[in-house]
Amino acid sequence: MANPQNQAVSNEHGGIPWKHVVGYILSIVLTALALWVTFKTGFSKQTILIIIFIFAFLQAALQLLMFMHMTESSEKSNSLTGKTQTGNILFAAFIAIVIVAGTVWVMWAGHAKHDHHKMEMDHGKTEMDGHKMDKDMEGMDH
Question: Are 34 and 51 in contact (CB under 8 A)?
Answer without folding.
Answer: yes
